[in-house]
Amino acid sequence: EIHIKEPIEKEVNPRLLPGELLLCEANTVYKYIQEDGSNRGTYGKLICTNFKISFLDEDSASDDNEPQFKNKIIGENDITLQCVDQIYGVYDEKKKLLTGQLRKYPEKLIIYCKDLRVFHFCLRYTKEEEVKRIVSGIVHHSQTPKLLKRLFLFSYASAAPNNTDGRNQTVMFDTLEDWRDELERTKGNVKYKAVVTNEGYRVSEKLPLYFVVPICVSEESILKFQGRGIPIWCWSCHNGAALLKMSAFPKEQDDNTSQMQKAFLDGICRTISNPPYELLKTEDLSSSLPSLQDIQTAYTRFKQLFLIDNSTDFWATDVKWFSLLESTNWLEIIRRFLKKAIEVAECLERQHSNVLLIEESATDLCCVISSLVQVMMDSHSRTKSGFQSLIQKEWVTGGHSFLDRCNHLHKNDKEEAPVFLLLLNCVWQLVQQYPPAFEFTETYLTVLSDSLYVPIFSTFFFNSQHQKDTNTTGESLKTQSGPFKFLTVWDWSVQFEPKARALLSNPLYAEKPKPDKSQRKTTRFKHQRQLSLPLTQTKSSPKRGFFREETDHLIKNLLGKRIGKFIINSSDEPHNSFREFYDSWHSKPVDYHGLLLPSIDGPEIKVWAQRYLRWIPEAQLPGGGTTATAAKILDLMEEVQSLQVKMDEEHSQAISRDVQAVPMLRNSARLSSLFPFALLQRQSIKPALPTSTWKDLEDEDDLVKRDDEFVDLSGDMS
């Protein structure tokens, strides 16, 4: 049944990074091409190193078949150990999850990845000893708990020369000067100060070395409860109102301690509610937003919709697409976080109130909301360097537990939750609704989400600045030149060549105009809210959202109860105030450098198609989608630029960055709608017919019975 391609004769050697060691390998492994549902594929060698699992075939040896958008670290058939989600073995056509010690070895191996790729390997033609070695090696190195020092991050950092310019215009917020500059940029330095109280981590190991607090807060107050109960500054609005966050006190305390903490909190709040400070509004995110467990459960269900084994599975589930999508609750969670960020923005912008976000650790939900508010209100955070600096400030030095939340060490599944991925999903909603407002593209966000699982960068592989510092300067890790430096993910030259990096920048970005009042009034772009693929749209009206008819009333009631909880105060007035603010903003022309509010009603919240559908050929539109639109606009831009060059030679250097981005989208008719990740050569041979017409596209008899419907549809399409 298998279309056998002869095993390769020549030896294919793996490309190993500095510090990367080959641990086990197996020859004559057959990799299925899952796209077309047949058993076609190619023979090659499957290897496992201390960094990745990799399949090597003839194509790996040649550079002829390289994709245009190539990652220099991770190849098309490479899976980093941290990117492995689950591994299944197939025994007599039955799938079984593989964990720990194995008594019996499977005839097929299926690897599901966190970036939603699915790999199928057949081991029937592999020597038994090699099967045992490779399967147990892959399961052990990717699924079992490991020590932090065993991460490839350390092997790479000690073996690779670090000659790159890591900063790349990104503010790292690891010095006192960085915080003072940010205070000055946002004009918050009148009421807030950067403090050095935590030098040597004497206050808390969770807090960064330097942070910002209201000027009236004393050093003794910060030290009193290890930094808990202290309002920490995030950002200041143009009108002087500030966004603050606070780590809450533990709930289970004895009465005496509890009274002391309450008195301490009351004192702090009274102090920062008096002039020169604005009125203070507090927002307990733990009670008003979904919990980490809710987020993890929703995402686990959601990602299953995209881990497709073959075409048959795709078409079978496609008929129930909207009901399956709704049942995951993932889009509803995104909507709730965006709504909360709008509520906070309204307090800052219109009510001129300080907002204090409260959470137990202030390192999860606080990070999402504070980041979203800044992206919506501060155009600097919509530039590439500004967005990267924002992530450094709120997430990396802010103490988000990347190691635990991404479960990089496989130590505790209960701590896992895709909080950072949730932020990227929320930001994507804004990027796709207002493309000209962002200097970066959705491809940038997709690549950033993939970088969560690449352990050569330290950015997403520590729980805190303290953990990173102690592991950087540990004596056992000293090289001959002293403590080594880790790479930062913000140096994109490590992963991509200049031609590929051009796709991370938005050529249609509406750069801030010069202060010329006559030109400022002209709006160059309209809303582009329809730029989504068919599978991300809904026919329901905005009021109905994604709700199914039969459960419409019940779910509305349930949601009504939940929505009621997360308004800043539970009275009707704030809700009306919010709606008035939201509707008023949406009734005016968009200022791409001012406040941006996402549309959050029903079908406006969409699936991030590029990230979630990119490996599914059936979901691609050859020569269609946003790629085709962008290609046409870029062609026009190139023509305008060439005319501009002829008119004024002095401007040629200034526009060279935009010109570089144009050649990547040549021949748009041959590109997939999910470019640059899915090229036309990956296209499925199944016909891309309307998905709701047939419940089973594999059943020919059913197609005959529905011949009339086919004729009608052809007429519609023509």
What does this structure look like?
With 718 residues, this protein is an alpha+beta fold. Among the domains are: 22-144, PH-domain like (Roll); 176-504, no CATH class. It is built from 26 helices and 14 strands. The chain has an 8-stranded antiparallel β-sheet. A hairpin with a 2-residue loop joins strand 5 (84-91) and strand 6. Helix 12 (365-377) runs antiparallel to helix 13. The radius of gyration is 27 Å and the shape is globular.
- Strand content is 5-15%
Rg for CA atoms: 27 Å
Largest beta sheet, briefly?
8 strands, antiparallel
State the separation between the terminal residues, measured CA to CA. 39 Å
- How many helices? The count is 26
Low-confidence stretches: 475-481, 517-573, 656-663, 679-718
Task: Report the structural category.
Answer: alpha+beta
Family: Belongs to the protein-tyrosine phosphatase family. Non-receptor class myotubularin subfamily.
Subcellular location: Cytoplasm, Myofibril, Sarcomere; Sarcoplasmic reticulum
Pfam families: 3-PAP, Myotub-related
InterPro entries: MTMR12-like_C (IPR022587), MTMR12_PTP (IPR030576), Myotubularin (IPR030564), Myotubularin-like_Pase_dom (IPR010569), PH-like_dom_sf (IPR011993), Prot-tyrosine_phosphatase-like (IPR029021)
